[in-house]
Amino acid sequence: MAARLRLAHKVCIITGAGSGIGLETALQFAAEGAHVMLTDINEAAVLKAAELVNSSFPNCKANGIKCDVSKELDVKTVVEKTFETYGRLDVMFNNAGIMHGDDDDAVNTEERIWDLTQAINVKGVWYGCKHAIIAMRKNKPNPELGLGIGGSIINVASFVAILGAATPQLAYTASKGAVLAMTRELAMVHAREGLRFNALCPGPIRTPLLMDFLNTPEKLGRRMIHNPMGRFGEAVEQAKAVVFLASDDSSYINGTDFLVDGGLHACYVTSE
Ligand code: NAD
Protein backbone atom coordinates (compact mmCIF):
# COMPACT_ATOMS: atom_id res chain seq x y z
CA MET A 1 0.00 0.00 0.00
CA ALA A 2 1.36 3.46 -0.90
CA ALA A 3 2.29 5.59 2.13
CA ARG A 4 -0.09 8.45 2.83
CA LEU A 5 1.41 11.86 2.05
CA ARG A 6 2.17 13.64 5.31
CA LEU A 7 0.08 16.75 4.57
CA ALA A 8 -2.59 15.15 2.37
CA HIS A 9 -5.57 17.56 1.94
CA LYS A 10 -4.26 19.94 4.61
CA VAL A 11 -4.72 23.64 3.94
CA CYS A 12 -1.65 25.76 4.70
CA ILE A 13 -0.80 29.44 4.64
CA ILE A 14 2.81 30.54 4.20
CA THR A 15 3.91 34.16 4.72
CA GLY A 16 7.02 35.41 2.94
CA ALA A 17 6.54 32.66 0.34
CA GLY A 18 8.12 34.56 -2.53
CA SER A 19 11.71 33.67 -1.65
CA GLY A 20 14.09 31.57 0.46
CA ILE A 21 12.67 29.35 3.20
CA GLY A 22 9.04 30.26 2.40
CA LEU A 23 9.33 29.31 -1.27
CA GLU A 24 11.08 26.01 -0.52
CA THR A 25 8.44 25.22 2.09
CA ALA A 26 5.67 25.88 -0.44
CA LEU A 27 7.23 23.23 -2.71
CA GLN A 28 7.73 20.73 0.13
CA PHE A 29 4.17 21.24 1.44
CA ALA A 30 2.76 20.67 -2.05
CA ALA A 31 4.95 17.58 -2.51
CA GLU A 32 3.36 16.22 0.71
CA GLY A 33 -0.18 16.73 -0.63
CA ALA A 34 -1.12 20.10 0.90
CA HIS A 35 -3.06 22.98 -0.66
CA VAL A 36 -1.16 26.22 -0.14
CA MET A 37 -2.10 29.88 0.14
CA LEU A 38 1.14 31.71 -0.60
CA THR A 39 1.54 35.28 0.61
CA ASP A 40 4.28 37.88 0.38
CA ILE A 41 4.66 41.66 0.33
CA ASN A 42 6.25 41.16 -3.11
CA GLU A 43 3.23 40.40 -5.31
CA ALA A 44 5.17 39.47 -8.45
CA ALA A 45 7.34 37.00 -6.50
CA VAL A 46 4.42 35.30 -4.81
CA LEU A 47 2.40 34.95 -8.03
CA LYS A 48 5.45 33.36 -9.65
CA ALA A 49 5.81 31.04 -6.65
CA ALA A 50 2.17 29.91 -6.95
CA GLU A 51 2.67 29.26 -10.67
CA LEU A 52 5.77 27.17 -9.93
CA VAL A 53 3.97 25.12 -7.27
CA ASN A 54 0.92 24.54 -9.49
CA SER A 55 3.02 23.46 -12.45
CA SER A 56 5.25 21.19 -10.33
CA PHE A 57 2.38 19.57 -8.38
CA PRO A 58 -0.82 19.43 -10.46
CA ASN A 59 -2.84 17.92 -7.56
CA CYS A 60 -2.06 20.90 -5.33
CA LYS A 61 -4.22 24.02 -5.42
CA ALA A 62 -1.78 26.91 -4.87
CA ASN A 63 -2.84 30.55 -4.79
CA GLY A 64 -0.66 33.62 -4.47
CA ILE A 65 -1.80 36.80 -2.77
CA LYS A 66 -0.09 40.01 -1.70
CA CYS A 67 0.07 40.50 2.07
CA ASP A 68 2.14 42.78 4.25
CA VAL A 69 2.26 40.92 7.57
CA SER A 70 2.77 44.16 9.50
CA LYS A 71 -0.79 45.19 8.49
CA GLU A 72 -3.47 43.35 10.42
CA LEU A 73 -6.13 43.87 7.77
CA ASP A 74 -3.91 42.20 5.15
CA VAL A 75 -3.38 39.15 7.38
CA LYS A 76 -7.06 38.90 8.38
CA THR A 77 -8.11 39.13 4.72
CA VAL A 78 -5.70 36.35 3.67
CA VAL A 79 -6.88 34.01 6.44
CA GLU A 80 -10.55 34.67 5.67
CA LYS A 81 -9.97 34.21 1.95
CA THR A 82 -8.22 30.91 2.63
CA PHE A 83 -11.14 29.66 4.69
CA GLU A 84 -13.60 30.77 1.99
CA THR A 85 -11.55 29.10 -0.77
CA TYR A 86 -10.61 25.80 0.91
CA GLY A 87 -13.12 25.51 3.80
CA ARG A 88 -10.52 25.12 6.56
CA LEU A 89 -7.04 26.03 7.79
CA ASP A 90 -4.67 23.37 9.15
CA VAL A 91 -1.24 24.98 9.09
CA MET A 92 -0.04 28.56 9.49
CA PHE A 93 3.64 29.13 8.71
CA ASN A 94 4.53 32.61 9.97
CA ASN A 95 7.80 32.88 8.08
CA ALA A 96 8.04 36.46 6.71
CA GLY A 97 10.83 38.46 8.33
CA ILE A 98 13.50 41.04 7.65
CA MET A 99 17.04 41.72 8.80
CA HIS A 100 17.71 45.33 7.87
CA GLY A 101 21.14 46.31 6.53
CA ASP A 102 21.18 49.29 8.94
CA ASP A 103 20.46 47.17 12.01
CA ASP A 104 23.30 47.73 14.47
CA ASP A 105 24.13 47.91 18.18
CA ALA A 106 22.31 49.61 21.06
CA VAL A 107 23.93 52.96 20.32
CA ASN A 108 23.71 53.04 16.54
CA THR A 109 20.41 51.39 15.65
CA GLU A 110 17.97 54.06 14.52
CA GLU A 111 14.50 54.00 15.99
CA ARG A 112 12.89 53.64 12.55
CA ILE A 113 14.93 50.44 11.91
CA TRP A 114 13.95 49.12 15.35
CA ASP A 115 10.25 49.86 14.77
CA LEU A 116 10.18 48.44 11.23
CA THR A 117 11.88 45.23 12.38
CA GLN A 118 9.49 44.72 15.31
CA ALA A 119 6.47 45.57 13.12
CA ILE A 120 7.27 42.80 10.62
CA ASN A 121 9.07 40.19 12.73
CA VAL A 122 6.98 40.40 15.92
CA LYS A 123 3.65 42.06 15.19
CA GLY A 124 3.44 40.17 11.89
CA VAL A 125 3.78 36.86 13.74
CA TRP A 126 1.21 37.91 16.35
CA TYR A 127 -1.33 38.83 13.61
CA GLY A 128 -0.67 35.51 11.87
CA CYS A 129 -1.23 33.58 15.10
CA LYS A 130 -4.31 35.59 16.07
CA HIS A 131 -6.16 35.08 12.79
CA ALA A 132 -5.04 31.46 12.46
CA ILE A 133 -6.48 30.71 15.92
CA ILE A 134 -9.81 32.31 14.97
CA ALA A 135 -9.96 30.30 11.73
CA MET A 136 -8.68 26.97 13.14
CA ARG A 137 -11.34 27.01 15.87
CA LYS A 138 -13.87 26.63 13.04
CA ASN A 139 -12.23 23.48 11.56
CA LYS A 140 -14.62 20.53 11.36
CA PRO A 141 -13.38 16.92 11.36
CA ASN A 142 -13.45 15.29 7.93
CA PRO A 143 -12.76 11.56 8.49
CA GLU A 144 -13.10 10.83 4.77
CA LEU A 145 -10.08 13.04 4.05
CA GLY A 146 -8.35 12.13 7.30
CA LEU A 147 -8.61 15.67 8.69
CA GLY A 148 -9.31 16.56 12.32
CA ILE A 149 -9.83 19.68 14.35
CA GLY A 150 -7.13 22.08 15.57
CA GLY A 151 -3.97 22.93 13.67
CA SER A 152 -0.25 23.55 13.69
CA ILE A 153 1.30 27.01 13.79
CA ILE A 154 5.01 27.42 13.11
CA ASN A 155 6.66 30.76 13.83
CA VAL A 156 10.10 31.55 12.47
CA ALA A 157 12.56 32.77 15.08
CA SER A 158 16.33 32.25 14.68
CA PHE A 159 19.33 30.68 16.39
CA VAL A 160 20.27 34.26 17.40
CA ALA A 161 17.30 34.25 19.78
CA ILE A 162 19.22 31.60 21.74
CA LEU A 163 22.86 32.58 21.12
CA GLY A 164 24.13 36.13 21.37
CA ALA A 165 25.53 37.46 18.09
CA ALA A 166 28.82 39.31 18.61
CA THR A 167 28.24 41.08 15.30
CA PRO A 168 25.46 43.49 16.25
CA GLN A 169 21.95 43.27 14.79
CA LEU A 170 20.07 44.24 17.92
CA ALA A 171 16.62 44.92 16.52
CA TYR A 172 16.60 41.58 14.70
CA THR A 173 17.90 39.59 17.69
CA ALA A 174 15.36 41.18 20.03
CA SER A 175 12.54 40.52 17.56
CA LYS A 176 13.38 36.83 17.31
CA GLY A 177 13.58 36.53 21.11
CA ALA A 178 10.06 37.93 21.22
CA VAL A 179 8.92 35.28 18.72
CA LEU A 180 10.27 32.51 20.96
CA ALA A 181 8.56 33.87 24.08
CA MET A 182 5.28 34.54 22.25
CA THR A 183 5.25 31.05 20.71
CA ARG A 184 5.85 29.35 24.06
CA GLU A 185 2.95 31.18 25.72
CA LEU A 186 0.56 30.58 22.83
CA ALA A 187 1.48 26.88 22.93
CA MET A 188 0.44 26.68 26.57
CA VAL A 189 -2.70 28.81 26.32
CA HIS A 190 -4.17 26.93 23.35
CA ALA A 191 -2.88 23.38 23.94
CA ARG A 192 -6.28 22.02 25.01
CA GLU A 193 -7.91 23.33 21.84
CA GLY A 194 -5.74 21.04 19.70
CA LEU A 195 -3.61 23.93 18.48
CA ARG A 196 0.16 23.39 18.49
CA PHE A 197 2.68 26.23 18.30
CA ASN A 198 6.38 25.71 17.66
CA ALA A 199 9.21 28.10 16.85
CA LEU A 200 11.61 27.18 14.06
CA CYS A 201 15.13 28.46 14.81
CA PRO A 202 17.13 28.32 11.59
CA GLY A 203 20.90 28.63 11.66
CA PRO A 204 22.55 30.78 8.99
CA ILE A 205 20.97 29.83 5.67
CA ARG A 206 22.06 30.62 2.15
CA THR A 207 19.05 32.80 1.24
CA PRO A 208 18.81 36.39 -0.10
CA LEU A 209 18.02 37.66 3.45
CA LEU A 210 21.41 36.60 4.80
CA MET A 211 23.51 36.87 1.65
CA ASP A 212 22.39 40.49 1.06
CA PHE A 213 23.40 41.27 4.65
CA LEU A 214 26.79 39.50 4.42
CA ASN A 215 27.85 41.57 1.44
CA THR A 216 31.65 41.55 2.00
CA PRO A 217 34.15 38.64 2.20
CA GLU A 218 35.06 39.81 5.74
CA LYS A 219 31.45 39.67 6.95
CA LEU A 220 30.97 36.25 5.33
CA GLY A 221 34.22 34.81 6.75
CA ARG A 222 33.47 36.11 10.25
CA ARG A 223 30.35 33.89 10.34
CA MET A 224 31.60 30.90 8.35
CA ILE A 225 34.25 29.93 10.95
CA HIS A 226 31.48 29.18 13.46
CA ASN A 227 29.73 26.57 11.33
CA PRO A 228 30.61 23.08 12.62
CA MET A 229 29.61 21.57 9.27
CA GLY A 230 31.73 24.09 7.36
CA ARG A 231 28.84 25.48 5.35
CA PHE A 232 25.69 27.54 5.62
CA GLY A 233 22.41 25.67 5.57
CA GLU A 234 20.07 25.43 2.58
CA ALA A 235 16.49 26.68 2.60
CA VAL A 236 15.21 23.22 1.68
CA GLU A 237 16.74 21.83 4.90
CA GLN A 238 14.53 24.24 6.86
CA ALA A 239 11.51 23.39 4.70
CA LYS A 240 11.82 19.69 5.52
CA ALA A 241 11.81 20.50 9.24
CA VAL A 242 8.73 22.67 8.73
CA VAL A 243 6.92 19.77 7.03
CA PHE A 244 7.60 17.68 10.14
CA LEU A 245 6.29 20.38 12.50
CA ALA A 246 3.25 20.96 10.27
CA SER A 247 2.33 17.28 10.00
CA ASP A 248 0.80 14.86 12.49
CA ASP A 249 4.24 13.21 12.77
CA SER A 250 4.95 15.93 15.36
CA SER A 251 1.58 15.57 17.14
CA TYR A 252 3.13 15.61 20.66
CA ILE A 253 5.62 18.42 19.93
CA ASN A 254 4.43 21.74 21.27
CA GLY A 255 6.09 24.93 22.54
CA THR A 256 9.58 23.99 21.33
CA ASP A 257 12.50 26.10 20.13
CA PHE A 258 13.17 23.83 17.15
CA LEU A 259 16.80 24.43 16.17
CA VAL A 260 17.85 23.53 12.63
CA ASP A 261 21.37 24.94 12.60
CA GLY A 262 23.88 22.19 11.76
CA GLY A 263 24.91 22.04 15.42
CA LEU A 264 25.98 25.68 15.66
CA HIS A 265 24.27 26.20 19.04
CA ALA A 266 26.35 23.39 20.56
CA CYS A 267 29.68 24.59 19.25
CA TYR A 268 32.57 26.34 21.01
CA VAL A 269 35.54 26.04 18.59
CA THR A 270 35.32 24.63 15.06
CA SER A 271 38.89 24.87 13.77
CA GLU A 272 42.42 25.75 14.88
P1 NAD B 1 14.19 35.88 2.26
O1 NAD B 1 14.58 37.32 2.27
O2 NAD B 1 14.76 34.98 1.22
O3 NAD B 1 12.60 35.77 2.21
C1 NAD B 1 11.79 36.55 3.03
C2 NAD B 1 10.49 36.86 2.31
O4 NAD B 1 9.69 37.68 3.18
C3 NAD B 1 10.72 37.69 1.02
O5 NAD B 1 10.04 37.09 -0.06
C4 NAD B 1 10.13 39.05 1.36
O6 NAD B 1 9.54 39.73 0.26
C5 NAD B 1 9.09 38.69 2.41
N1 NAD B 1 8.73 39.83 3.26
C6 NAD B 1 9.54 40.82 3.74
N2 NAD B 1 8.80 41.71 4.43
C7 NAD B 1 7.52 41.27 4.40
C8 NAD B 1 6.29 41.77 4.93
N3 NAD B 1 6.23 42.91 5.62
N4 NAD B 1 5.16 41.06 4.71
C9 NAD B 1 5.20 39.91 3.99
N5 NAD B 1 6.32 39.41 3.44
C10 NAD B 1 7.47 40.08 3.65
O7 NAD B 1 14.51 35.35 3.73
P2 NAD B 1 14.64 33.91 4.38
O8 NAD B 1 16.05 33.69 4.72
O9 NAD B 1 13.90 32.89 3.60
O10 NAD B 1 13.91 34.22 5.76
C11 NAD B 1 12.68 33.67 6.14
C12 NAD B 1 12.61 33.71 7.66
O11 NAD B 1 13.70 32.98 8.21
C13 NAD B 1 12.72 35.12 8.26
O12 NAD B 1 11.81 35.27 9.32
C14 NAD B 1 14.14 35.17 8.76
O13 NAD B 1 14.31 36.09 9.80
C15 NAD B 1 14.34 33.74 9.21
N6 NAD B 1 15.73 33.33 9.33
C16 NAD B 1 16.56 33.34 8.26
C17 NAD B 1 17.89 32.96 8.43
C18 NAD B 1 18.86 32.99 7.27
O14 NAD B 1 20.04 32.74 7.51
N7 NAD B 1 18.44 33.23 6.04
C19 NAD B 1 18.36 32.53 9.67
C20 NAD B 1 17.47 32.53 10.75
C21 NAD B 1 16.16 32.93 10.57
Automatic annotation (TrEMBL):
<dbReference type="Pfam" id="PF13561">
    <property type="entry name" value="adh_short_C2"/>
</dbReference>
<keyword id="KW-0560">Oxidoreductase</keyword>
<dbReference type="GO" id="GO:0016491">
    <property type="term" value="F:oxidoreductase activity"/>
</dbReference>
<comment type="similarity">
    <text>Belongs to the short-chain dehydrogenases/reductases (SDR) family.</text>
</comment>
<dbReference type="InterPro" id="IPR036291">
    <property type="entry name" value="NAD(P)-bd_dom_sf"/>
</dbReference>
<keyword id="KW-0812">Transmembrane</keyword>
<keyword id="KW-0472">Membrane</keyword>
<protein>
    <submittedName>
        <fullName>Putative fatty acid beta-oxidation-related protein</fullName>
    </submittedName>
</protein>
<feature type="transmembrane region" description="Helical">
    <location>
        <begin position="145"/>
        <end position="166"/>
    </location>
</feature>
<dbReference type="InterPro" id="IPR002347">
    <property type="entry name" value="SDR_fam"/>
</dbReference>
<keyword id="KW-1133">Transmembrane helix</keyword>
